[in-house]
Amino acid sequence: MASIIGLTGGIASGKSTVAKMLIEKGFIVVDADLAARKVVEKGETAYYQIVREFGESILNEDKSINRTALGDIIFNHNDKRLLLNSFVHPAVRAYMNKEKNAAIADGRHTIFLDIPLLFESKLMSMVEKTILVFVDEDVQLERLMLRNQLSEQDARARISSQMPLREKILLADAVINNNGSLVETEKQLNSYIHEWKLIP
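and the corresponding structure tokens:
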């Protein structure tokens, strides 16, 4: 019986760094962000729903969805974000379940589901345990501004569109504090892998 572990965090908390560490250790990581990109590709059901609701102004020249243009709309309008999520989330869940089942059929013992909005979207039923990658809010803000070349106002808008990381601590089974070095982060990850007896 495979173990299904949820990996979550917040924007610019370092969750992708931890996911990369897991992949290097031989674990399967099913990535919700990757799934979200796949399910809105041209020809997919969610793609047509998005274009119908948001109009062709959010398309690139090649008719693919311009994620920046769409992001600018949804990060500043909660109703539009909820509408987008109503198309994308069911498609993402179906995609992730398909990937998870393929990994189980392949004989894998542990599958990590990398889901940024695990708690916001109430997807805890998809996993047995959860690991939260945590950083202090000032660190999160600084990293996001630097990584995405955002103004402080834009970065704060993106952070405040998610549940505060401090609230997520109360919901997680395990917390990796990512305020320090990568060595410290990996040490914490290894201790959970050991404690929970996880094998790829």
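(Above: one complete record from the training split.) The radius of gyration is 17 Å.
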